[in-house]
Structure formats: C-alpha cells, structure tokens
Amino acid sequence: MRTLLITGPGGSGRTTVSAATALAAARAGTNTLVISADPTDTLGAALGVPTGAKPVPVEARLSAWRPDAAAAFRQDLVDFQDRAANVLDLLGATPLDAEEVTPLPGAGELALLRALRDAALSERFELLVVDLPPAPQALALLALPEELRRYLRRLLPPERQAARALRPVLGRLAGVPMPAEWLYETAARWDVELAAVEAVVEDAGTTVRLVAEPGPAGADAVRAAALGLAVRGLPLEALVANRVLPEAPADSWLAGPVAQQRKALDEWRETYAVHPAAHLGRDPRGTDDLAALAPPGAGAAPERAGWPVADRLAEDGVLVWHIPLPGAIRDELDLIRRGDELLLAAGPFRRVVPLPSALRRCTVDGAALREGELRIRFVPDPALWPGASR
Read out DSSP for 150-162? Predict the structure, then answer.
C-alpha cells in the first residue's frame, strides 16, 4: 500500500488538499481511503459526504473515514481496567463506567495512529491519504510510536521477561514486589501495536506532502516542518502551495499579495517539488471544487535516501555518517553520544537514534554542518574494532 501523510501549518487547507488528493487518485483508478482525525467534520464538508466512525463511500474507488476518538478511548480504558482488576481491587479503586469517561487531550491523535495501522493492514485499498494535524503536532505524533517503544524497552526490557516464572521467588528473596504478569503482557501488546504503526510510518511507500500558503509565514512554517521531517528520516515528496492567487493588474490591490506569493514560489521551487493549487475565491465544497484544485497524482514513492555511512578509513582513518538536515542552524544543533545511541537535537526537534553497527565500535571524532547536511566523523576504537592493533 502507498501512504501519503499530509500536513502543514494550521489554516493552510490541509484537509481540503487531502480530500482533493484522494479524489484525484480514485478517479485515476486507485482504490483510495482518506482519513482525518479532525473532531469536526471538515473532511465531510469538503467531500460533500458526512464522515464518521466507519469508512463511508464517497464515489467509486474512494472512501472516507473519521475515527471515533471518544469510543476508542473508552474501550481502551475498559480493557485496561479489566486487565488490572486485581491490582485495582487491592487499592480499593472504584472502576469507571465507559459512559462517564471523557476523552483526554491527545485521544484523537492516538485514534488516528490506530486507524493508520488498521487501514494499512486492510487489503481493500491501494492508497491511504492521511490528513494529519498541523505540522508541529503531526511531527510529535509521527515520533510517538518510536519513542514509546524505546521507553517500554528501557522500563521493561524484553530480555528480562524470560525470568517470569522466577519473579515470585525473587520477590520473596529480595523482599520487594516484582512486576506483575499483566504488566509485562500489557507492555508486550503495546509494543506490538506500536511496532505496526512504526512500520507504516517507516515503510518505503510512505511519504509526506506539506501544504502551505506561499508567503513569509508559510515559508517559515515549511522550513521548520522540513527540518522536523528530516530529523525523523521522513521524505518530503512534494510541497502543495495552496490558495495561489491569479495574476493581477499592477494598479490592483491584489498586486502586492500576488508579488509576495510569486517570490515565495520561486524560492520554494529551488528546493522542493512545488505543486500550486489555485485560489477558487471561496472555500472548496464538493467534488467539483476539489477536482478544480488539481493536486499532484499519487505515483510511485520516491526512494528513501536514508542516512549513509561513508567509509573513509583508507584516506582519513574515519567513518563519516551523513545526516541530511535542510534548514538546520549550526548554533541550534546538539549531539550527545550515549552508549549505542546518538541524541540528536536540531532546533525544537529531538530524536534518539540507534547507531549503525559499525559506528558502535567507534568513538566520535567531530561533526560539521555543511550545505544542509550534518557529517559526523567516527574513529575506530582499537579495543572494539576487528583486526585493529592494541
């Protein structure tokens, strides 16, 4: 399955572009599902068909889905109470009824991740178009599966689960309570679910499209989002310049905004694959308006470049790890080596990255930011490097 993740600054028209993209793909013959986590039915308003907790047909080869975050949150809480019933009874806790539960902030995003996983496992669709939240929230959401899995592995290491049968004995000997069986089972189930979502995000067929209005504010938002995507290793396939104004006479009041948009478009085209979407003079409503936006088609996903390691041992005695970070600023970069992981911070974005196997046997020798690429030099550690003199 091909997956298109669509995000951008708030108010840029992400949902409209997502709906138009899905419609164009369906009319080109691709079985398509478009998903949105917006609590209000902006997706349905754009498509002209109400959407809800189950996928609904819009027209031939196109379905739309807006997962029910409230129902998913209630079901998760009830399931958790059932699994932890013994512990809750010991604590004297009174179980909550599903009907009295109000979803917490973030429940919609979690429901979207689960829907993303379920849709990817479905064999009904060839293309999944995901209307993500605004870029800052979307980047945090896409990082969530990887980060939560790392937390679980640190708090409940899988290799220690082999000693489950010994925990009661160890608990008596140590005189301290040991983690209960249900806790490990819950962690294992969460890990499986998170791994499924992470696999979709990291799949070679998954790419990102940004939506922004050309102009100074849009340019700043695109620059920040592109850096955040690069930190996550997610490819930016295209930039949809939304609400592009038509040419206007020099003495028209529109001349200034048009000139500002043209300048932003020219700058974007130097870096991104830009697809303009015309300003219709109204909020797009219905499939006729969406078709007029003419978004880019959903062709084959571009090959992911990855973060290559260059072998320069013969020339300079180092291995160089190349990490693309377009728009990064030297003073806002931070690197910390911790064991077999690298803590990378670029502006407001952070990621803990496992080192490639060869680099785990090396020490960091320095780093430099050149032409939007971070290059980290590693020197083989004689105590760990095979064949090295000691």
Answer: HHHHHHS-GGGGG
How far, in Å, CA of 61 to CA of 294, rounded? 18
Amino acid 161 reads Q
User: CA–CA separation, 315 vs 312, rounded Å?
Assistant: 5
Whole-angstrom distance, CA of residue 351 vs CA of residue 333:
12
- Helix, strand, coil: what percent of the chain each, to 5? 45, 25, 35
Instruction: Give the H/E segment covering residue 78.
Output: helix 69-83
Q: Do 370 and 324 touch, CB atoms closer than 8 A?
A: no
Euclidean distance between CA atoms 197 and 237, whole angstroms: 20
* pLDDT tens-digit series, residues 219-249: 999 999 999 999 999 989 999 999 999 998 8
Show the domains of the chain with their CATH numbers: 2-69+104-293 (3.40.50.300), 309-380 (2.60.40.790)
Burial of 385 (0-12, 13-18, 19+ CB in 10 A): middle
| pTM of this structure | 0.85
